[in-house]
Design goal:
The chain has helices spanning about 5-50, 65-100, 105-130. By secondary structure, it is mainly alpha-helical. Helix 1 (about 5-50) runs antiparallel to helix 2 and helix 2 packs antiparallel against helix 3 (about 105-130).
Amino acid sequence: MESNLSESETLAREHLANERTLLSWVRSGISALQIGILLYFAGRTLAYLNEGSSPKSLPMLGSTQEELAVLGVGVVALGALLEIAAVIRFFHYKASISKGSFTSAVSVYLLGAFGLVLLSVAYIIYVVVS
């Protein structure tokens, strides 16, 4: 299938696709931030509720509320790193598109995947220990 697009139209499409990709990563980072904040405050709330209770009335809440808060801070840190990596990637690709030489970088994907694996392992340990 032959395309009748001019070079400027093709460049515009590539820049717009780069912007859409940035916005997608921003949404992912914001979701991680929201989940991390939720986990942090859930842990703090459980700690507050557990203060006036005896251990027998809340048997499942030992020291796990602090661990939940730490996990939440870890997810927030992952979200922040995703945001930073996405912006760096956006500007790198923007310059590459303008030069006409595109090289793919996988750093932001590896950061996201490594962070999710790390958080998954932390969550599994959290569930097994508590």
